[in-house]
Amino acid sequence: MLGYLLEYNRYCNIAGIFVILAIACFFSQHRSRINYRMIFNGILLQFIIGFFVLKTSVGQYCVNKLALGVEKLYLFADKGSEMVFGNLIDSSGPWGFLFVFKVLPVIIFFGALMSLLFYFGIVQRVVMVINYVVRPILGTTGPETLCAISNSFLGQTEAPLLIRHYLKKMTKSEMLVVMVSGMGTVSGAILAVFVAMGVPAVHLLTASMMAIPGTLVIAKILLPETSKTAEDADAQVAMKSESANAFDAIASGTSDGLQLALNVGAMLISFLALIALINAILSYFIGTSLNVLFGYLFSPFGYLFGFSGPEAMSIGELLGIKVAVNELIAYGEMLKMNLSDRAVTIVTYALCGFSNFSCIGIQIGGIGALVPERRAWLTELGLYAVLGGMLSNLMSAMVAGLLL
Questions:
Q1: Any residues with CB less than 8 A from the CB of 140 and at least 6 apart, and which?
Q2: Which residues, including other chains, have CB under 8 Å from residue 9's CB and lie 6 or more apart?
Q3: Distance in angstroms (rounded) separating the CA atoms of residues 381 and 176
Q4: Cβ(303)–Cβ(19) under 8 Å?
Q5: How would residue 22 be classed by pLDDT, with cut points 50, 70 and 90?
Q6: Dihedral (CA of 145, 17, 45, 348) sign
Q7: What share of the chain is helix, strand, coil (3-state, %, to 5)?
Q8: What gap in Å lies between CA 350 and CA 332, rounded to an integer?
Q9: Domain extents for the chain?
Q10: DSSP string, 78-90
């Protein structure tokens, strides 16, 4: 056992897990209400998922089939987009991946699909099953757990559509779970882009699965449940659709999806522009940028991953780019760096999430369009969501380092 921990400095990963938990506890809004049993069960579940997917052929088969199913959903969305935008939806063209043509139409499609599934009572039944199975283990409610699960494959704008009828009754703690699970994961469509870039597919898929308990654990440390309304999960599950019929459900879902897509696009434009402005100011006055500053901030995690010297600093730089810019740019830089195979594998887990500043705008615009009365919570919890998503990604990387 000692020899195993010394190999690749795996003992550093154990220290890293405790450091991550300590950071989350430090920023917790209600440290006295933290459910430590839930934390232990969540981390144990993360280890079990990692072992099942990384160490068994059955696990790899199941995850690949699930990812394939999600990929087909995105292909169905492309059929509608193709009629309107033509070849612009083809990422292999000279224009590359265009967010406005590849992602925003998917949001509209998912709005209609989820509204239809809710009309037929399918969403409610899934929530009820998850609530029955997961709540005894983690103590989380069905809607927030379902969102955490769906975020691992759908993405931070599509997943809330799955539980949009529950959002109004969610507590502040549950809302943070929705936000952190969105920040700590990537969508199936973006995951496919990473694979095409050369990022290891099996580790991207494993990271998506491990993020489910990881985001729940970190979110419940940062903002433990203090409201009694979250305990009334059965009342939430019993909700009925307000649509008159199936076609009405499709129409209302499409309208909601369109509003969501417009808000996401607008918020993304403004937040990225403001980040560029901040970088320009920093460059003018002190000759640096946000990604460089965050690179120094995150460099200790390179050592906690078990690496040293320039490689550890390079990993810190990648983490900084991921937070200050986005994970797409960070993965591109990772593939250009002369990192060891093990470093590439571990960093793949650490970068596999939407936790960056621009995504605060996406969530405010996206979730805020679905539940405007909770927009104040979304703006208040934005930085917490980025922190929670980043910590959950780092936790997945530490667990992966112990297993690989």
A1: 38, 134, 148, 177, 216, 220
A2: 306, 307, 308
A3: 7
A4: no
A5: very high
A6: positive
A7: 80, 0, 20
A8: 14
A9: 2-403
A10: HHHHHHHHGGGG-
Vertex 286, ends 284 and 291: CA angle to 5°? 90
Rounded to 10 deg, the angle between the 122-138 and 104-119 helix axes is: 90
How many Cα atoms within 13 Å fall on the side-chain side of residue 98? Answer: 16
Report the C-alpha gap between 10 and 215 in whole angstroms: 23
User: Can you tell me the distance from the alpha carbon of 327 to that of 314, in angstroms, rounded to the nearest whole number?
Assistant: 15
Residue 93 in this model has a pLDDT that exceeds 60:
yes
Residue range 182-211: average pLDDT? 79
Short-list 400, 401, 404, CA closest to 46: 400
Give how far Cα 396 sits from Cα of 16, 20, 62, 179, 355, Å.
11, 11, 19, 18, 14
Q: Please tell me what DSSP assigns to residue 229.
A: G
If DSSP codes are grouped into helix, strand and coil, which group holds residue 233?
helix
Q: What is the dihedral of CA 70, 75, 77, 80, to 10 degrees?
A: -170
Is residue 65 pLDDT above 50, yes or no?
Answer: yes
Question: pLDDT exceeding 70 applies to what percent of the chain?
Answer: 89
Q: Where are the alpha helices (DSSP H) in 86-224?
A: 99-102, 104-119, 122-138, 142-151, 159-162, 172-183, 188-197, 201-222
Q: How far is CA 124 from CA 75, 120, 153, 174, in A?
A: 25, 9, 19, 17
pTM of the model: 0.79
Distance CA 281, CA 120 (A): 53
What's at 17, amino acid-wise? I
Provide the residue type at 137 as one letter.
Answer: I
- 184 SS3 class: coil
